[in-house]
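hiii, so i know i said id send this last week but things got crazy w the move. better late than never?? heres the sequnce for the chain we talked about at the cafe, plus the structure i predicted for it. fair warning i was half asleep when i ran it
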Amino acid sequence: MATTPVTPASLITWNLDPAHSAAEFKVKHMMISNVKGSLTGLTGVFHENHTDPTASTVEATIDVSTLNTGDAQRDGHLKSPDFFEAEKYPTMTFKSTAVKRTGEGEYAVTGDLTLHGITKPVTFAVEGPSAPGKDPWGNTRIGLSATTKINRKDFGLTWNSALETGGVLVGEDIGITLDVQFIKG
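okay and structure toks below
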């Protein structure tokens, strides 16, 4: 099978805009409802291949210290050695390894997620990228959304507490949603 040659005209570099991008997560609390949080301070680059989108790549980094659940005490606990160990592991990273088209404007992007010093393969369901648009300052922008689910124990985040009524305080599955904008580099 012949591959499409990559030319400079077929590659576009997009830089992640941290001011208009966020990562959100949710986890079951006390087995009754979800607690949600967000992380800001995202950085990254998307190398879009126009002639073959499956040859595109993305790399991103998130600053763990930006974690916010709306409760300072809980945020401190999540950043502590019981969970993220933010002082020892200040960032989480993602580097794509494969892109597969799953529908019109939809992709499965697989890559290596490094969290809490452990690297595991993860696949994001991606919607986008959007059509390029100009902002008021003359920059060309695109946006996309991505979702996945991970088991926190796979990344060494094992702290928990048993409940008197049965079950545990913190669920294992973490839903992750990314809503990001990129600026043409």
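btw Residues 8-184 form a domain with the Lipocalin fold (CATH 2.40.128.110). thought thatd interest u
miss u guys!!
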